[in-house]
Design goal:
The complex is a heterodimer of chains A (249) and B (309). Chain A contains six helices and 13 strands. Chain A is an alpha/beta fold and 249 residues long. In chain A, the strands form two sheets. Chain A has a nine-stranded mixed beta sheet, with helices on both faces. Chain A has a two-stranded antiparallel sheet with strand order 2-3. Chain B contains eight helices and 16 strands. Classes of the chains: A alpha/beta (249), B alpha/beta (309).
């Protein structure tokens, strides 16, 4: 079985996002960019399925600027077999990404597509579910366990109150949550090896997908700032402050 | 505008998350509801009581019993032929279903709206709330998920909606429900708790977390959380993690105990109404967002607080 793992290049999760003063977005110039953490979990899960003998080939895909190649090389260094870069400098919305991925899925015929549940930049949490709708496949979102059994996959999902398990017919879409696994670090020899793994370059037009945004970003601003509060001298003063706002046992 | 609101329920009662969505929908126009599930007569009757509600569409079918998106999304897409906007709470159920509906309708969803700015204009958090985007849709229909903490809850009584059965839809044959492990109810869920007590790496061990944090949370009936550092150090399981890559919370009161306040943690909790920080390092960044800060050794301060609160 082939597994498709879409990955996104995003602002590194340890970098504090700075809103541009002209209100057009978040400043991404000269800041560290990394693979979206949830996508890293997706790559790791695909590799584990390959190590278990369930998967035979892992294809990493990224839709983004030329530099997204670095993100794909990271996926290759972790253990993906080959990569497809769908290159565009435009900001592509989840719906258009899902359409591109649908075209790739049609061509590649994967048994599973494993995506991060959301990207930590736009926080949309949509692409996997949209891809599932477009392919007409089942979806197991927010996965904390993935078990392939014959022609189906059992996905344990992180839901608000706890966990839920669903059985999905293959091919299927899985989106990852934090508890699914801990992604490995690529070793130096594997980073070197990744440089010679195949990476195809495509464009959205190759898949006949129009990436014109449907949603216009009018303005990006700072959230309401918190005013730093007061320091209390001791526990007694804290207890009094808490009681004043109605917090007590 | 005619809106269709997804009613989140547990089979017998309407969940509170729905009420905030009704408020958001009422800012757009007429509010219709969809109750989907198996044996949901009672839920439909309760939903019709929600203030300001017009029609309540009821899809009673075993295939809708566990909110499987493969079965539910086509039903919603059908109903959207006669509605202009679909709204669901930004819960795990809403987030699972709404984008599937959006793609079926060829609409770009707007996730987790914080406010309604106009007929097609909304604000929403990006970068885990470190920035707020004002966005405007150009699609003919809207698909929205709604952050529950950003809207007042509509009154659950006083309405007089009319209940109407929907016969469309069924089992798509793609998925089935196997089982659920729902956390014990003796402690509130992290994402809906009124009070959260979180511990950080300064605790030093899972034993200390149990000994210091848990009794304090128990005393307040609070949910338990942790920083990524504490999770990475193995003091508590992953699902306790509050932060950009963990859970985003906005309780009435958030206690950050022995948490320095890394960016990625702040991103997950800075919308809390009141933040209380206890840390022995007076320069810890957590104090810059805390309403009440106590510079003290947590191992003595927290047990004392537990005793006195």
């Amino acid at each position: 079985m082939k597994i498709l793992v879409p990955v996104k290049r995003v602002l590194d999760y340890n970098v504090k996002p700075r809103v541009k003063s002209d209100g057009t977005g978040v400043d991404l110039a000269n800041v560290k960019m990394s693979m979206n953490p949830f996508d890293e979990i997706g790559v790791e899960e695909a590799i584990r399925l390959k190590e278990k003998g369930v998967a035979t080939e892992i294809v990493a895909v990224s839709v983004g600027p030329a530099k997204a190649q670095e993100t794909l090389r990271t996926a290759l260094a972790m253990g993906a077999d080959r990569a497809i870069l769908v290159q565009t400098d435009d900001a592509v919305e989840p719906l258009a990404i899902a359409k591109i991925l649908k075209a790739i899925a049609d061509a590649e015929q994967p048994g599973l597509v494993i995506l991060g549940k959301q990207a930590i930049d736009d926080d949309n949490n949509q692409t996997g579910q949209m891809l599932a709708a477009l392919t007409g496949w089942a979806q197991g979102t927010f996965a904390s366990a993935v078990n392939v059994e014959g022609d189906s996959v059992n996905v344990t999902r992180e839901v608000d109150g706890g966990l839920e398990t669903v059985k999905l017919k293959l091919p299927a879409i899985v989106t990852t949550d934090l508890r699914l696994n801990e992604p490995r670090y690529a070793s130096l020899p594997n980073i070197m090896k990744a440089k010679s793994k195949p990476l195809d370059a495509k464009t959205p037009a190759d898949y006949g997908v129009d990436t014109t945004p449907r949603v216009k970003v009018v303005k990006v601003g700072e959230p309401a700032a918190r005013s730093a509060g007061v320091k209390v001298a001791d526990v007694d003063e804290l207890v009094a402050k808490l009681k004043a706002i109605g917090v007590h046992s | 505008m005619k809106t269709l609101v997804w009613v989140e329920h547990d089979g017998s009662a309407v969940k509170d998350a729905t009420l905030a969505v009704v408020t958001a929908a009422s800012k757009l126009g007429e509010v219709h509801l969809l109750v989907a599930g198996e044996g949901v007569d009672g839920v439909a009757k309760a939903a019709a009581q929600i203030a300001g509600v017009g029609k309540v569409h009821v899809a009673d079918n075993a295939a809708f019993g566990h909110n499987l998106p493969e079965n539910v999304a086509p039903l919603i897409a059908d109903l959207m032929a006669s509605h202009d906007a679909f709204l669901a709470p930004a819960t795990t159920t809403g987030k699972n279903i709404a984008p599937r509906v959006a793609a079926l309708l060829d609409v770009m969803q707007i996730s987790e709206i914080l406010s309604v700015e106009g007929e097609k204009s909304f604000t929403r958090p990006i970068y885990a709330g470190n920035a707020i985007a004002t966005v405007e849709s150009s699609d003919p229909k809207l698909v929205l998920t709604v952050r529950g903490t950003a809207f007042e809850k509509a009154a659950s009584t006083g309405g007089s909606g009319t209940v109407e059965a929907v016969s469309a839809g069924g089992d798509a044959g793609l998925s089935s429900f196997v089982g659920a492990e729902i956390a014990k109810q003796d402690r509130p869920e992290l994402t809906s708790a009124k009070i959260i007590v979180s511990g950080g790496r300064a605790l030093g061990s899972s034993e200390k977390y149990e000994e210091v944090i848990v009794p304090f949370a128990d005393k307040l009936g609070a949910a338990l959380g942790a920083s990524r550092a504490a999770v990475d150090a193995g003091y508590v399981p992953n699902d306790y993690q509050v932060g950009q890559t963990g859970k985003i919370v906005a309780p009435e009161v958030y206690f950050a105990i022995g948490i320095s306040g890394a960016i990625q943690h702040l991103a997950g909790m800075k919308d809390s109404k009141t933040i209380v920080a206890i840390n022995k390092d007076e320069d810890a960044p957590i104090f810059q967002v805390a309403d009440f800060g106590l510079v003290a050794d947590l191992f003595s301060a927290v047990p004392e607080l537990t005793g006195k609160i």
